[in-house]
Every structure is written in C-alpha cells, then in structure tokens.
Write a structure and sequence with these properties.
The complex is a heterotrimer of chains A (about 280), B (about 450) and C (about 300). Chain A is mostly helical. In chain A, about 75% of the residues lie in helices and about 0% in strands. Chain A is globular and about 75 Å long. By secondary structure, chain C is mostly helical. Chain C has a two-stranded antiparallel sheet. In chain C, a hairpin with a 4-residue loop joins strand 1 and strand 2. The chains are: A mainly alpha (about 280), B alpha+beta (about 450), C mainly alpha (about 300).
C-alpha cells in the first residue's frame, strides 16, 4: 500500500490547498489585530508588529454590533425553523402521498428560482406593508422563506425518498395514524437530512444582503450584513480595521459550529442518494 | 425569542401569500396603512445615510434634547445607505410609509422628488431656523420656484479640494499649482516610487462622474446650457477629458476602482503626494497617519488657466420632509431643531471640516471654532467654507442655471464615468466618446 | 416509488401537508411574475410607481440596446467560467477530503468556510487583498518577481472579469464539495476492490467508477449552481459594480441600475423577464439533454 513518505507528502499537499483556500480568513484575522496606522504600510506587513484588540473593544462597546448580531441570530433561527417545518411537511407529502399534480409540483421547485431577486423586492415590500409588518425582523423571515424553501424542499424530498416504505407500513399495520407514523418513524429517520437542511437554510439567512438592504432600516431589525456595511462602509470612508474585526466575529462562530456539524452537512446530502 | 417568533411565523406566511396574490397587478392600490404608533406617544422617523459612529453620537444628542423638550414624542433614527436609499425611498413612497425627516441626501434628490410631487413644502422650517442666519445664497439650490423651498442644506461640503503635502512640496521646491499644467508638472516631480502623484478616480462610480464634471467647469465649460440643453460637443468638454487622461500616469494602478474612500486613504496614508477630497482628510490624517499631520493643507482645485475661476463641487447634503409624513407640525419642529446650535455643532464636529455649517451664525460662534482640528487648520477650514458656500453641482451648475431635476439619474447612469473609462482606459477616439455622451444625455433628459 | 395502497385515502391529508409550500410558491412565482410581466409593459417612475402604458416598447428598446446584449454576454461568460471552475475544484477537493488526512474535520470546515462566510465579508476581504497599494496579493507577486508593477485586479479588462470569476469560484466551490463528498461516502468500497483486482489504475478507477456514480449528483448541482450564478448580484455588485465601463455588468446589475438608479421600473422588469426567459430555455434544454443521457446509459 501507500508508503509513509507518500502519506506525508499527500498530507502536506492537502493542507497547503486547505490553507490557500482559507487564506482570506487568515489575513482577515491578522489584519483585525493590527493597529490602524500599520494597515496602510507599503509594503504591507505580514505579522502584526504590535497586536491590539482595540478594534474588537470599540466594535462591542461603541457600536450597535451586538444588536445586529442578536438580530442576525433571531433571523437565522426563525427562518430555519419556519423553512424546515414547512419543507419537512411538504417533502413528506410529496414522497408518501398520492394526489393529482404531485409530480408536476416536484418539478416546479427549481423554476421558482428563475426570477431575479432584484425585481421581487418592491412587490415583497408592498406585501409586507399590506400585512403591517414592514421594517421588522419578521418581514425578513418571510422574505427569506420564499427563497430558502424551494431548495430545502428539494433536499428533504431526495433524502426522504431514501427511507424505506416498509417502516411506515409496519407502523400503520400496528394501528398508528399517518401523522403518528410520520412523527414516530419518518422524523427520526430523516433527522440527518433535517439537520443538513437546517444548516443550509441558516447559511442563506445569515448571509443575505440585498433584501436586508431594502426591506429593513431600523437598528432594531437590521442584521449583521447590512448593519456592518452601512456602519463601516460609506461612500466617503471605509473603516478597514473595524471591518476586519467585524468579519472575524461574524465568521468564527460559524466555523466552530461547522467543525462539529459538518458530518451532518454531508451525511444529509448523501444518504438518500441525490436525485433530481 | 426566536422560538416564540417561529410558531406564528408559519401561519402568517400563508396569509402573506394570499395577500400577495390579491395585490398582484394593482400594486399602487396596496395599502397605505399608517405607521403603527403606540398610543399617546408620537413617533417620528429620521433617515440618514451618514452614520459613522461619531456622527451617530451627535444625532443621539439631538434626539435626546428634542424628546426632553417635547414630552410624548419619540424619535427613531434609521440608517439608510448611499447604495440603498434610492430603493428604500422608492419602497417608502410606494407604500405610503414615509419617514418624517430625511437628511444628508444630495440636493438633486430633493429636486427630483419635489418634481414628482413627493415632498412637503419646506418654507415653514426655514422660517423657524431664521432665513437671516443662513449664509448668503445657501438655500438658492432648494428654491424650486420663486419663494418656494423644497428643502434646505444641513451642511456644505467642498468635495474637490486639492490637498497638498507641504513637506514634499518644499523638498521639491514647488509652489501651489494654480493651473492644470502646473499641477501636472508638480505631480511629475513628486512621483517617486512608491509615492504616486495623485489619487484621481477612473472607476465606474459617482465619484468619477462628479470629478469629471468639476473638470469640465475647470476647463471653462458646463455640461448643460443655463436652460438645460446638452452642451458637451465643445473644447471645454474635450479639454477636460484630455486633462483627465493626462493625469492617469500619476495615479496608482488601482485608481480604476477608486471611490471617495480609496482616494482619501491613498492621500492620508502617504501613497500619493496630492489628494482630492473634502475636509475629512483632517480627521483621518490625525487618526491614521499623525506623521504627516503637520504637513497637509488644501487649496481650490486648479483650472485650465488663471482666467477660469475655481469651481467647487458641493453635494449640499439636504434636509427634506416626504409628502404624507404623519404629525407634520412636530416633524417641522424637529427638522428645525436639527439646526439648534448645541446639537448642530456636535454634528459638525463629528467630522470637522467635512460637513461645513450652512448657518453663518454657527460658523462665527466661539463654540464651533472651539475644536482642536478646526483651530489647528483654521486657514484650511476657512478656504473650504468659502468654496463650499460658492459651490455648485450637476443639479445646479452655475448661478445662471435652472435646477436640473434629472441630475440624480444622470449620475446614476454612469454616463460620465463611462466616458472617462472609454477615453482613458479603452482608448476610444474622442469624437466617438463625445457623441456617445451627447446621445445618452439627450435620452436621459427626454425620459 | 411508494406503492402504498393506503395512499389514496390520505390524499386530503397529503394536500394539507403540501399546502403551505404551495402558498409560498405562489408568492414567489405567481405574484412577482404577474407583477413583473405587467410592469414591463409600462414606463414606470420607480419612486411613485406611476407611469404610462408602452406595450412592448421596453422589449423593443432592449433588442436594439447594445448594453443589454453585452450584459447578457457577460452573464453567460461569468456563469459558464465560474461554474466550470466550481465543478472542477469542487470535485477535486472532495476527492482529497475523502482521503484520510490529519485533522480532517478541521480541514473540511476550513474548506467550507468560503461558502458560509457572508458575501459582503468575502467581497470586502478580497477587495482588501486585491488593493493596489496595501494589498497582500500584489505584494506577494511582486516579491516572487511575477510582476513588476502592482496589478490592477478589478478596474481593467480582462483582469476584472477574471477576478470576479475566481472569487465566484472560491466562494461557491464548497457547495460542490459538500454534495460530492456526501455521494462519495455512499459508493461501496467493494466496487473499488473489484476494479483493483482487475488491475485498474487510480485514474481509470476514477473515470470508470467514481464519475458514473457522481453523475446524478453533478447533474443536479450543475443545474442549481448555474441558476444561482446566473442570478448572482451581491458578489459582482460589491466587487466591481459592473465596471470598467460595462465589462462586468451582468443582467441582475442592469436590472438594479434601471430600477433604482434610472428610476425606470418598467424597463427593469423587461430585463428581468428577458433574463428569466433565457434561463428557462437553457434549463429546459439542459434537463432534456440530461434526461436523454440517463435513458441511454440505462439502456
């Protein structure tokens, strides 16, 4: 089999690729701990000559950063829950029930993505006003649901197709109702797929920019993406130090979560065998 | 919090959809629900795209003093952004949920919204502030019809000041350039690796368009005639393009993507020997590069010859009240309150020299002058104030010009920035570039 | 698929379960589609949403507008190039991460980082890396002697197009990694063992076993990513804004400019509808080709 030397060489190569891919992250962290006057050095310094956490302190104590963080978390979790609940029910229905138009509907899923989001903004905004929820986190939850749902549904459907019919049939023979069978049998089986779908949905909601830019503009509802942008980047000035510190704080929690959950991300995708 | 929100969320998203279907096709009919205000208290909404942390502090002070003086009134500050405001204003107008006061949008946004019947008359507010307190002519750009004002300026800016490094100038034995030829010669002398001569923008953005417009005036021309006929097929326009191109060799390679922030940073960091910017240079130099803080100074930007006067670009950050804003009386009082000396001075001091006062009473007051930066750079601040008060922009090119309500769209179409890129970057022939600009301007003016 | 005889009795329950989904779909398809089609027949001033009927005037304008055709070309170029890179890098990285390497979880997490970092952050960091004066990219290349002068990454052609394609590939290839990695884990080892006994080398094992097994997942991933790349707005808008001139202006940027810069919602809707038609025709074609391939390979 493989020699030890070959194995070491492969590991070195693989980690080089990984580090090159993650280089922007590394640079982000390095830049965020440089004092401001070191930033504009020509040529740039690689290691900070002096390490400072003043940018983090300023961000937390002197700006609404934590408020935006709270909004983003609420937004991410709320969107994820709404989308996953609706998609799980929908996918279950598509896979296990028979009614006219079912196949057509499954094919339609991807077509929902055809209209560019830019033209959806004004109709969506008017809808929110009509409902009386404009300029709230809630309006963003609804907006994000519209674009996260099709993908979630598609992912869960292909996952649930991989769960054998026999299990549910056995439960029904034992006298369970359809919904009981769904809760007791299908849900536990689908759990990896549900976790994986949740992660994808959370990422979408955490990162969205355009809708958040237009639909919301109070600090009470503004998420991190647009909050950080409008606070630190104006036509007149870019606060690079604060920006890099903010970027690190926006990314690190996700990296840590994903280090633990990434097996679900790939398992949920694979178990059912991905089908169109 | 997240959990409690999610459950009703499920149900309402269905209603949202039904609502949407009902509203399809008849968008204008879609609701004009009033802002859900809490009982008894009046809530005012204040929008602004200028939200640097220091400015926010000043705004909060102004809000607190207003709330203290008017029990039962609550003011919410809501940050919009330079990229986002057109869409957000459109959404606000379309839905009828407009903010009460909008500040810091460029003056041509005011005239464009007024033209379309979207603003409340502003005379009452100006009278509350006291017309005699303003600098002479400060409100002329907002006078949409004789005696009728659509808004007012919350500050002035002199956006195209030429910034110089006195240390480098002395070393090279140079004096302040007055003409384009002298400026080019100076840049030539000052450009020594790694220092470039100038940070002019060559990007597809509004800064490039605005700087180019200032060059056309610096060549003795104007984009439109006073009665707003397109006026680009002439020597002034060509000379401006020619000058812009000749400066390319003195600008960093990345200048093709520069906007205000990049251009500012290039000068502040010492990467370029000259700069083109407002007074924000002063604060940034002090914070980011104190090494050169004693050696920066500004002058009005050179022109093609001494016989052509300086032309200063002022985007006149504005104050306006959208039509249909609830609680109009309190709104007007709040708009006027923004100019009360204590709060107004804090706002100006948040970025000393960047936003210049429109009230001469404030400019002359000891409280305003009592600021370390304004004291240290007194001569520069004075020059900028003079230039800003005599400043113009595409919405109002010279005192003889009629206000141009299409200015906002023209800048957003990037027609001038593209002309610069076509001539400088892509080397298209002059005649083709000029005729292209003329055609598109015609189209935009007719649209 | 499911042949459960009980199914028919539960059709109502099934319909109830899918109902919320259908309603959301109506909100994202029917309502905006109708309003976009409707608005595209008018000249509409965005802030007031008032305007006059012009019939197909907006479409006639687009057909004769070089800007529209250039933007369409840019969109296709960007989509095809960035998608190709995403697939190639994505499959390669997935194969690599499928092997046993030290700290594999951390390595996977880091590779996935570009996908879950927000676009805004990613773009700003890249702009900082690309900066002509303080950017580390130029500095490293200068040190390595690859270039003499700092490169203008974002402001001149063809660099600007190459830069957005590369950043796009960097940002979205982890999506391919996730999908492919998942599929790789389900390929039975027995297949490889058998091929090894037959004397197949590493390359022919990849071509004969791995690729056919990945086919299904790649068909879907290509479709999804193609649609999303075609519609990409944030990344390009924040990176180049469509410049220089209109060399990187894709259709979504044109929609945004027309709608909110030029305040012409009607023409913006016409661009959006045209864009949708282009995507629709490509999608139908693609699904047909993919479907035919599948039938042939099963024969």
């Amino acid at each position: 089999m493989k020699t030890i030397a070959g194995r070491i060489a492969f590991n070195l190569f693989a980690w080089t690729v990984v580090l090159v891919t993650a280089f922007p992250l590394i640079w982000m962290i390095l830049t965020s701990v440089k004092p401001q006057f070191e930033l504009f050095r020509i040529p740039p310094t690689f290691w900070p000559e002096q390490i400072t956490f003043e940018h983090y302190v300023r961000l937390i104590y002197e700006t609404p950063f934590l408020k935006y963080m709270r909004n983003s978390l609420i937004l991410g979790f709320a969107t994820t829950i709404v989308v996953v609940v609706v998609a799980t029910l929908g996918a279950h229905s598509l896979v296990r029930f028979r009614y006219p138009g079912r196949e057509r509907l499954a094919q339609m899923v991807l077509f929902t993505y055809l209209l560019p989001s830019v033209v959806l903004i004004l109709p969506l905004y008017l809808m929110m006003v009509w409902l009386g929820i404009a300029n709230t986190i809630f309006s963003l939850v609804i907006a994000y649901t519209t674009f996260a749902l099709p993908y979630a549904l598609w992912l869960l459907r292909s996952f649930m197709q991989g769960i054998p019919d026999d299990l549910e049939a056995a439960a029904l023979v034992d006298g369970a109702t359809r919904m009981e069978a769904f809760v007791d049998v299908i849900l536990p089986q689908a759990l990896p797929g549900i976790i994986s779908t949740s992660l994808f949905t959370f990422i979408l909601a955490w990162n969205e920019y355009l809708y958040a830019l237009v639909l919301v503009n109070t600090d009470e509802a503004r998420p991190l993406t647009t909050g950080v942008m409008s606070m630190l980047v104006s036509a007149f000035n870019i606060e690079w130090s604060l920006l890099m510190a903010a970027s690190v704080m926006m990314s690190l929690p996700l990296i840590i979560i994903f280090a633990f959950l990434q097996t679900y991300l790939t398992r949920g995708f694979g178990a059912g065998g991905v089908k169109g | 919090m997240s959990k409690t929100i999610s459950q009703p969320g499920h149900g309402v998203s269905r209603r949202a959809v039904l609502a949407g279907m009902g509203a399809a096709g008849s968008m204008a009919a879609a609701g004009t629900m009033p802002t859900p205000a809490e009982a008894q208290t009046v809530t005012l909404r204040w929008w602004s795209p200028q939200t640097a942390p220091a400015q926010r502090e000043a705004y909060n002070f102004q809000i607190q003093t207003f709330e203290a003086a008017n029990p039962g009134v609550k003011v919410n500050f809501e940050a919009t952004s330079d990229e986002g405001y057109p869409a957000q204003m459109a959404a606000a107008f379309a839905s009828g949920q407009v903010p009460n006061v909008v500040t810091h949008l460029p003056s041509f946004a005011v005239s464009s919204y007024w033209q379309n019947g979207l603003l409340e008359p502003f005379n009452d507010v100006i009278n509350m502030i006291g017309p005699q307190n303003f600098f002479e002519g400060a409100n002329r750009i907002y006078e949409v019809a004789p005696g009728q004002y659509a808004g007012t300026g919350i500050g002035g800016s002199a956006a195209n000041m030429m910034w110089l490094r006195t240390d480098l100038m002395r070393e090279a034995g140079l004096t302040t350039p007055r003409t384009w030829d002298q400026l080019r010669a100076a840049c030539q002398r000052l450009q020594r690796a790694p220092v470039f001569g100038a940070p002019l923008p060559y990007a597809r953005n509004s800064m490039t368009s605005l700087i180019f417009i200032s060059f056309v005036h610096g060549a003795g021309g104007s984009i439109f005639t006073p009665d707003l006929q397109v006026n680009v097929d002439n020597d002034a326009f060509r000379n401006a393009l020619e000058f812009y191109k000749s400066m390319r060799e003195f600008c960093p390679p990345g200048a093709t993507n520069y906007s205000w922030g990049d251009s500012l940073t290039a000068f502040v960091s010492g990467a370029t020997a000259t700069g083109i910017y407002t007074g924000r240079v002063l604060a940034n130099v002090t914070q980011q590069n104190p090494r050169i803080a004693d050696f920066v100074t500004c002058q009005p930007y050179p022109t093609i010859s001494t016989s052509v006067p300086h032309w200063t670009f002022n985007d006149f950050p504005s104050v306006m009240i959208p039509k249909g804003a609830p609680n109009l009386d309190i709104t007007k009082r709040f708009a006027a309150h923004l100019f009360r000396a204590d709060g107004y001075i804090r706002q100006l001091h948040a970025a000393p020299g960047h936003v210049l006062p429109v009230l001469k009473t404030v400019y002359e007051s000891a409280a305003y002058q009592e600021n370390a930066l304004i004291k240290k750079y007194a001569a520069d601040v004075q020059i900028m104030s003079q230039q800003a008060s005599a400043g113009h922009n595409l919405g109002w090119e010279t005192v003889r010009h009629k206000p141009n309500t299409k200015a906002g769209q023209i800048i957003a179409s990037h027609v001038f920035a593209e002309a610069v890129q076509r001539y400088v970057g892509a080397n298209e022939p002059m005649a083709q570039v000029v005729s292209g600009v003329a055609r598109r301007l015609d189209e935009l003016m007719r649209a | 698929m499911s042949g459960n005889p009980l199914d028919k009795r539960y059709a109502v329950l099934g319909a109830m379960l899918i109902a919320p989904t259908v309603l959301v779909f109506c909100a994202v398809i029917v309502y905006p589609l109708v309003s976009a089609l409707y608005l595209s027949l008018f000249t509409i001033f965005t802030p007031t949403l008032r305007g006059s009927f012009v019939g197909l005037g907006n479409y006639a304008y687009l057909v004769n507008s070089p800007e529209f055709w250039r933007s369409l070309w840019n969109t296709l170029l960007w989509t095809i190039c960035t998608l190709a890179l995403q697939i190639v890098f994505g499959v390669a990285a997935a194969l690599m991460l499928h092997q046993n390497i030290v700290f594999r979880s951390l390595a996977r997490s880091l590779i996935l980082f570009p996908y879950f970092v927000s676009t805004v952050v990613a773009v700003l960091v890249w702009r900082w890396l690309f900066n002509d004066l303080y950017g580390v990219m130029n500095h490293l290349m200068l040190m390595a002697g690859l270039i003499k002068m700092p490169l203008d990454w974002l402001g001149s052609m063809p660099n600007a197009m190459i830069s957005i394609i590369l950043v796009g590939a960097w940002k979205y290839f982890p999506f391919v990694v996730i999908a492919v990695l998942a599929r790789l884990q389900t390929i039975p080892d027995a297949l490889y063992e058998a091929a090894k006994i037959d004397g197949a080398g590493a390359w022919s094992r990849f071509v004969d076993i791995t690729l056919p097994q990945l086919r299904d997942v790649l068909v879907v991933v290509v479709l999804l990513r193609a649609i999303w790349d075609f519609k990409e707005f944030d990344l390009i808008y924040l990176l180049t804004g469509g410049g220089p001139i209109i060399a990187t202006q894709t259709l979504p940027l044109m929609v945004y400019k027309d709608a909110f810069g030029l305040n012409d919602m009607g023409r913006a809707s016409a661009v959006a509808v045209s864009m949708m038609l282009v995507m629709l025709s490509f999608m139908v074609l693609y699904l047909k080709l993919a479907g035919r391939d599948e039938r042939e390979s099963q024969r």
